[in-house]
Design a protein that fits this description.
The structure is a homodimer of 190-residue chains. With 190 residues, chain A is mainly alpha-helical. The first copy, chain A, is built from ten helices and no strands. Chain A is elongated, with a radius of gyration of 19 Å. Chain A starts with 6 loop residues before the first helix and ends with a helix. The first copy, chain A, binds a DNA duplex (30 and 30 nucleotides) through helix 2 and helix 3.
Chain lengths: 190, 190
DNA sequence: TCAAACGGAATGAATATTCATTCCGGGAGA
DNA sequence: TCTCCCGGAATGAATATTCATTCCGTTTGA
């Protein structure tokens, strides 16, 4: 049996994700991260040079996993409208099933801790989605605006919808979740 | 002549806002807040029992100012569509002129530090906006969805638009700012 | 047997909070 | 009018705590 040498690395990342999502950056000291991961504090420093680096790696790691999962079924050949529908749905379901990742990502993206380079790296991961926008331009399906604007307002709206759902403030059923996503489509469709 | 007793309180709040928006909660120790406010560290504790309380007060204070300013010209008598247009525009311009407040509010709202009570207090301030939604329901102007959902996705989209603008990643002119807001209206209009 | 991985106590810097002291303005008394 | 108190506001050095990081002895596994 090959003992995964990165076992502890992954455990540290997982523990950091949980603690930060639950208690914020404040409430996630290295000592607690180590404790929750069942490893020694020193071990974390075998894999990350600093806490800052750990958090940054956690962000890249999280974003990578999310985009891979979301684009799992994506194909450049499917009809554009159908691709959008699927994309929306995947995002919603991913975050509903992984609320800690949403919480962490939102905290980090909104904090001044994130560097321009990391932000760029994050949007590079979303490149396939940019291709989807490209595919939509020819048949004139979308409003005549820069992709960045369309992308930003869509993503903002979807995330807001998910946060509302997760907050439990409103009772959701399949219907009004679907209705919400349709409304968001109306925002960008020509 | 009443000597402003709250001079220093306001100075502390202002300094905290600036530091947090620039460097995050981490990068805003009480010592620096005091220094930037040109007051003693101990003085802050005359007005707030703890840093946590200071930050909470800053949030309420900020949100109050924002909503008051945004609703400045609002009237229940104006046509609904016009009220929405104005509301959108006011929000956009307020935050563009006060980016530090946006940065702080987004950091705090996305962090687990915020309490349920504070969140509630924040949405209580937005009550007049709920009235606007109420006014829109009778003439069937909006999609048939719970207000909370409509409100959330609109606000999410607007904030995303503003953040994009402030990031400088996309060149904005009056046209595509206006186009963005129209797109957001399409999201909720029936 | 040895090198790499690990653990967690030790370290020192940073931080929030406290508190003894200073400062200041506005009466009281002469 | 001038001097002397007085109370509360303000201060920032001192304190106690927390935290990231380091160090070194132990364990692991090849």
């Amino acid at each position: 049996m090959t003992p995964k040498l990165t076992d502890k690395k992954a455990a540290a990342l997982k523990a950091a994700l949980e603690l930060i999502s639950e208690h914020g950056f404040h409430g996630a000291p290295m000592s607690q991260i180590a404790q929750r991961a069942n490893i020694g504090v020193g071990t974390i420093y075998r894999y990350f040079n600093s806490k800052e680096e750990l958090i940054n790696a956690l962000y890249i790691d999280t974003k990578t996993r999310i985009t891979q999962c979301i684009l799992r079924k994506y194909s450049d050949n499917a009809p554009v409208r159908e691709s959008f529908r699927q994309l929306f749905s995947e995002i919603v379901h991913y975050y509903i099933e992984h609320p800690a990742e949403l919480s962490f990502a939102e905290q980090y993206e909104n904090s001044p801790l994130i560097t321009a380079a990391t932000r760029k790296e994050g949007s590079r991961l979303a490149e396939p989605i940019m291709r989807l926008f490209q595919r939509a331009i020819a048949p004139n399906l979308l409003k005549d605006m820069p992709f960045e604007i369309l992308g930003a307002i869509i993503y903002g709206a979807i995330i807001a919808l998910i946060k509302l759902y997760l907050s439990g403030a409103v009772k959701f059923n399949e219907e009004n979740l679907e209705a919400g996503l349709n409304a968001i489509w109306d925002m960008i469709k020509r």
